[in-house]
Write a structure and sequence with these properties.
The structure is a homodimer. Chain A is α/β, with parallel strands linked by helices. The first copy, chain A, has 2 domains: 206 residues, Rossmann fold; 146 residues, Rossmann fold (3-Layer(aba) Sandwich), CATH 3.40.50.460. Chain A contains 13 helices and 14 strands. In chain A, strands 1, 2, 3, 4, 5 and 6 form a 6-stranded mixed sheet that branches. Chain A has a 4-stranded parallel sheet with strand order 8-9-7-10, sandwiched between helices. In chain A, strands 11-12 form a two-stranded antiparallel sheet. In chain A, helix 1 packs parallel to helix 11 and helix 4 crosses helix 5. The interface between A and B is large, with 84 and 84 residues.
Chain lengths: 421, 421
């Protein structure tokens, strides 16, 4: 019989509405296998918790608290934007991880994140092998950007997609009903620095000809000011108003971000961020139309109240599968979502080799974007639509979603040696 | 028995998540009294529909379509930002209204809006009396700003309140979990040009000490940069992060809007709107902390998906009561929400004299804001909390809220004379 060993779980990068559902899947599944998995430790603030030997003992949390993770957004143990350098550049960091894992008899490493963390997970696996330390490293996919390869979609994306499509539909109704005497052009800025998946999801709101949004601006399509202005003008002329979804990563043909268009405050200080006001300002300047703009920012990725039931189920499933794969002896892999059919939507969990996942960014295929570059195609709709299906409302108390806060009890240190990040 | 006459309903000003629930209340109630109320006409684009004799025949809509108004945000017949001038300045406009009403035998005028429309409603009532035209004018309260007097709260506000409190709680969880290595300060801008009610509602999210939001910036409290920066610094030092809710109408002591702080684009053009980026920029400049900001804009007032059940019920109730008051012979009045108790929350519908409603703006009482000016008091919480109670999710189809679009069939013109606005 295999030796019983402890496990380590950490959250990485930008959090989502459902990354805790993955944590829930990992923890609940580990608890069902106490013969093989001893303690499940979580990293406080992600991988920093391992580097600093600041581990959280998840066994101190009640079954109810762990179950509540399924409906709680954000990272319950803290996440980190901390990219480990390459093995060559900073081998000490990787060795430190192994040292901490060794001190706490950690045999399973579950790393819940996007592309960078897949790469880290792979390197930890490789180094532990080279150092002769037995460790199974499993990556749990997560990213609102939906840019991981192999997996059909990424947990976290479906809920953002549902949020932005719902929000732009609602704002579209609002603007349409006021357009005669008020705002004619509305701009909603959504996330997506390099890939336009979230912007594309806005497009799901327009199910019939003429419905908002009318224009989508993708990072994959270089921004052409004249074509854009002409499109806005034609839309307002036809429909009376125009609703636009724009990616934060919108760029001009020479690779400049629109959001860095050089806004300055009265003192001449650069004003960072916000492509929506830049686009709105352009509309005002060129067409003299009344506009409004919104920037959803963190609201979109934290909006657990309007999460996709499909997304929640998949987030939980990849967490569960990660533990099951580890127990079956897998190493350096990632559970991946496999689409079996779109109509009706059927999916299962497969296994992806981490070497094929790390450092590959999946952008929108060109045939998911209309020829004119301003909207999504039917093919894109067929891909996206299943991902926002179903509602999974959290419980409410006092009129507000009731989210859980864990105790996050620290594990006594065994090394006690400080580590400088 | 009273003579059977037609009725006219119009939506005015900024739309809300529940103004259509009031329309639903008006129409469903009128349909129950066909012995007294003939046709119920709606103004296309609000009062413009009356001035231009562009009336909509609501009898062409099915019972199911009218029922669906209860869960559809925006203004189903179109609303207008159009303030009628004073009787002295433009008597012709009021006379035109009476002329159109007369042509279509309209004996009931239901006007669904905020302070300005209450004033218009009152003037129409007065003029019809002076002109000897029998008309009962009833105002149906609506405004996300919650600034109407007499009524305990305004339909539309409770749902925005629920949206902003939910959103800032979710964003707060997000920021807290990432603060160690990422964003330390998050700013959410909400509506409220003159009154801080919506900003106050953000405060409902912090039910326990230390929970987000940590700082609220009200239009009622002049912005003091040094005190604000000190507060942010102390909060980040204590909690590790700081979440701020700010009113779009935030002003300095000399009455200048922060949002007009003089942002300019690269060409020197003034950049309108957005107090959140101004506040965030200040934090960056003075404290060198990583920040993010969001501007909810129309998303907040259109967010029917997270509407307050209490708000929906009240919006419907004032619509219903308006028709019932008319049938009882009232004129120049407004149904008002009367709070009978806060714990448990009990309310009923009373009657307010329009002369006491028009042109009075209800700001936040000073004792609803903490002494330091940065948060809400327990008294404010007791007032606000009941207004966000209960969920009233719309039906969903294809993963998105299913909102109704009416046919909006035009009534044949009887005058046909053009009217220049």
């Amino acid at each position: 019989m295999a030796k019983k060993r402890n496990a380590f779980y950490a959250q990485s990068g930008g959090v989502t509405a459902v990354i805790n559902a993955s944590a829930c899947g990992v923890i609940e599944t580990a608890r069902k296998h106490k013969d093989r998995i001893g303690k499940l430790y979580a990293g406080r603030n992600g991988i920093l918790g391992a580097l600093e030997e600041d581990l959280i003992d998840t066994s101190k949390e009640s079954a109810a608290a762990i179950a509540a993770l399924r409906h709680t957004p954000s990272g319950a143990f803290g996440s980190a934007r901390y990219k480990l350098k390459s093995l060559e550049a900073n081998r000490a960091e990787y060795e430190r991880l192994i040292e901490v894992f060794k001190a706490h008899d950690i045999g399973y490493f579950f790393y819940n994140g996007g592309g960078d963390s897949a790469d880290t997970c792979l390197k930890v696996s490789q180094l532990s092998g080279a150092m002769g330390y037995p460790l199974q490293a499993i990556h749990v996919p997560k990213t609102v950007d939906n840019d991981l390869p192999i997996t059909d979609c990424c947990p976290g994306f479906g809920s953002v997609a549902k949020y932005v499509a719902t929000s732009i539909r609602e704002a579209g109704f609002d603007v349409e009903s006021m357009a005669r005497t008020s705002t004619k052009v509305f701009v909603l800025e959504v996330m997506g620095r390099h890939a336009g998946w979230i912007t594309a999801a806005c497009g799901l709101a327009s199910e019939a000809e003429g419905e908002a949004p009318h224009i989508l601006l993708f990072p994959e399509i270089p921004f052409d000011q004249d074509r854009f202005i002409a499109k806005v003008e034609a839309t307002v002329k036809r429909a009376g108003y125009c609703v636009i979804g724009v990616s934060e990563g919108l760029q001009t043909a020479d690779g400049k971000f629109l959001s860095d268009a050089g806004l300055r405050d009265a003192f001449g200080h650069a004003q960072l961020g916000g492509v929506a006001p830049v686009i709105a300002n352009l509309v005002r300047e060129k067409l003299k139309l009344k506009y409004h703009w919104a920037v959803a920012d963190y609201l979109q990725r934290a909006a657990r109240h309007i999460a996709s039931k499909t997304d929640v189920a998949q987030a939980y499933a990849v967490g569960k599968a990660a533990v099951e794969l580890a127990l079956k002896g897998h190493n350096a892999v990632m559970p991946a979502i496999v689409r079996k059919s779109s109509k009706p939507y059927k999916w299962s969990i497969g296994v992806a080799d981490l070497a094929k996942v790390a450092n590959v960014e999946k952008k929108m295929p060109r045939d998911f974007i209309t020829t004119d570059g301003f909207h999504i195609t039917a093919k894109c709709r067929t891909y996206l639509s299943p991902l926002i299906q179903g509602e999974d409302f959290p419980p409410f108390r006092n009129g507000l979603p009731r989210y859980v806060r864990l105790k996050n009890v620290a594990v006594p240190k065994k090394l006690g040696t400080p580590f400088k990040l």
